[in-house]
Amino acid sequence: MDKGYEKERFESVSLKTSVAKKFNKYCQKLSMSKSMTLLIMLEFFDENGISPAESMGPKMQTLETLVKKRINGVIAILKDIEKSQTKPTVAMMQSLFEESVPKQPPLILEKNKVEKDQPKFIERNNSES
Q1: CA distance 123 to 32
Q2: Is 64 found in the same domain as 27?
Q3: What is the pLDDT of residue 6?
Q4: Which CATH number belongs to the domain containing residue 16 in this structure?
Q5: Regions of the chain where pLDDT drops below 70
Q6: What is the CA angle 77-49-37, rounded to 5?
Q7: pTM of the predicted model, to two decimals?
Q8: Would you state the pLDDT for residue 38?
Q9: SS3 117
Q10: Which residues contact 59 (CB under 8 A, 6 or more apart)?
Q11: Is 103 helix (H, G, I), strand (E, B) or coil?
Q12: Amino acid 118: pLDDT
């Protein structure tokens, strides 16, 4: 049953057999009832101001132009956000991390320190004993 239309009664519409077969296949393809398929088709034409009898050529070109303008607008907004917000924030974060990293002494000094802590061995001459 169609949601929201359960209590409505059915009306009949007369269609030619070939048209009815095409419509039935289309309804199966959409996995919708015949009433809902016809309803969404009518709403589509009404919302977009399209007549099934007129050509889609100029309408599609205008739609494509609108979409391109909006995409260009979104790109401009993203570039502005990147320039005014993202790059300065990244620079600030990098400067904070660079200052917070403790400087480690060079490894050469550590080797010298280890050598000083080790006891030195005294060599004896065998002739003295």
Answers
A1: 100
A2: no
A3: 80
A4: 1.10.1220
A5: 1, 56-59, 99-129
A6: 105
A7: 0.41
A8: 92
A9: helix
A10: 48, 50
A11: coil
A12: 57
Q: Are residues 25 and 59 in the same domain?
A: no
In a domain, 1, yes or no: no
| Domain span including residue 73 | 55-100
Contacts of 35 by beta carbon, 8 Å cutoff, 6+ apart: 2, 5
Distance between CA atoms of 33 and 15, rounded to whole angstroms?
A: 16
Phi first, then psi, for residue 49 (nearest 5°) are: 65, 35
Contacting residues for 51 by C-beta, under 8 A, at least 6 apart? 45
Separation between Cα atoms, residue 122 and residue 127, nearest integer Å: 15
Q: Note the pLDDT of residue 114.
A: 52
In the chain, the number of structural domains is: 2
Nearest by Cα to 45 from 57, 35, 53, 33:
53
